[in-house]
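Q: Hi! First time asking for a complex rather than a single chain. Here are the components, and I think there are two in total. Is that enough to go on?
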Amino acid sequence: MKIQFFDIENWKEIGSTLARNKTRTFLTAFGIFWGVFMLACLMGGARGAEDLLRRNFEGFATNSAIIFPNNTTIPYMGHAKGRRWQADHTDIERLRVLLPEMKTVTSQSAEGNISFRNGRHSFSGQVWGVEEGFTDVMLPEIESGRFINEADVSKQRKVAVVGKKVANELFPGESAPVGKTILVNGIAYTIVGIAYQTSEIQMNDRIDNVVIIPVSTFQKGFNRGDKVDVIMMVGDNSADFSQLEPKIRRVLYSRHQIAPDDTNALWYLDISAEFSKVDILFMGVSFLALFIGLSTLIAGIIGIGNIMWVIVKERTQEFGIRRAIGAKPADVTVQILSEGVTLTAIAGMAGISLACLVLGISAALTANETSTPRFQMTLWQAFVIIGVFILLGTLAGLIPAIKAMRIKPIEALNDK
Amino acid sequence: MIRLTEINKTYPGAVPLHVLKGINLHVERGELVSIMGASGSGKSTLLNILGILDNYDSGEYLLDGTLIKDLSENKGAEYRNRMIGFVFQSFNLINYKNAVENVALPLFYQGVSRRKRNMLAMEQLEKMGLADRAHHLPGELSGGQKQRVAIARAMITNPSIILADEPTGALDSSTSRDVMALFRQLNRQEGKTIVIVTHDPGVGRQCDRVIRISDGLIIPDESIKTDN
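A: Yes, that's all I need. Here is the structure of the assembled complex.
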């Protein structure tokens, strides 16, 4: 006995049956097509959306915390409440020594509304004083030149890294004004680098709009003594910033004579906690996509099964005729299943193709110079989607096919 | 060609219906016979048994020397395909297939290639004088043309017998005459054994022999003079 499924004649017959019944074929195929398309878009789209969201956090250390000193709110050790206190390099040194799990303890200080000048061109914005460790916390994109280094800080050099926008305003038409001089509050600095940022996270302002100088030079230039505005810490993998918070508070509170229960005197921003919140959001998005996808899948399969059922009903007489002129029950079953599989495979491919196109366009529209969100499926996912549809489509077609197999030719022929 | 011996058939139910009560029937090779009977006489059931579309309870049915009894669905399908050509009152053509494809369909179930079966189907249609209608769908054909396509389909496997169930029932009188002439031609020229079930005496008169069935029994043979 020949195996009909692999018989070319059988496929020709199926091809002509599907081609002749265009409306029916189209309606069935469209259901499958749409199901596959939606599922593929959801899976690829969820991944792309996640990438889009994550892009906001690019260029910022995830396992990190930032300490902002605030005015005290509780009187303590003879000090009235509302006292202003500032962190300084001694704090930084102590944190470095007491917290060995820290990769970097560094600082940022800012002074706003400073005038920058180059000849007749001028611009105003913030000046930041930073150490070389700043790049461990926040990674600026260096367009040309370099960032502030250790020697700049230790030698109090009058060097500056200039934001891209500032550079464009002060040196219009010049692509890389590295080595040129910029006047900051009337004092000349040599430009060593041009920087910008792609991340959506900003500390005080975007790097594009500011001038960054060594912290030592900054402290001297703006009479800050040894003080810094904020302390930034990056931990290694073992560092858990939510557990470290009490310890960090103790180190600073004892030295600055702040009441141990005065939590408002220091704002402790645990970046890793913020990130894990976002991770939960991503998980939620993925779960939602999976849920909607599965619902689409189930609705699609029920649709296919329903259409198959109607088709078998509608074709009862045809199957009766076929049986009368010599079709075996298995011939009829194989015919229905093969038609279903063929339709599902073709419509599925079409759905995947259109989904790829849509995802590709989404990726192209959201791409920027540094990254393209992965609005895409893995090949493996595409195969699984089509495979699942073919499998479930076959199962959905199986019940009507078995029903059709049971049709006795006389019953079918009498059904006029 | 057809030999029925003491065929009994009862439809089970709350009140079992004994439809065929011991049918004895013998049709020779090359005969053109009609089976006539009122509705409820059991002639449809007899036709279904002759066509291997239905089983019988007791007795014996020999078709072309082959015992047809308690066949599996697959065996039944195979025998129908090779030994019986069906012609129905309502034509029973597949409406989305054109004339050639309809005629060729029985050969598909024999595993004949598309090219060869379409060629053979074309030959049959030419014999029926329908070569110019070969690529029309059934919906585009007249009743008489449809029935001739159906007869071509019945003939294509070169079956032992042609079974026709009220072949003129849906046709007007002039077309009926044409179709009957075609049956007679197939009978005379190709020696086909043809069994026509009908309630139309006009059809019966054109056959070699009329077998009358009443209340599940054959009424003894009544020879009909052929009208040449």
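A: Chain A has two domains: 4-57+276-414, 86-257. Let me know if you'd like any chain examined more closely.
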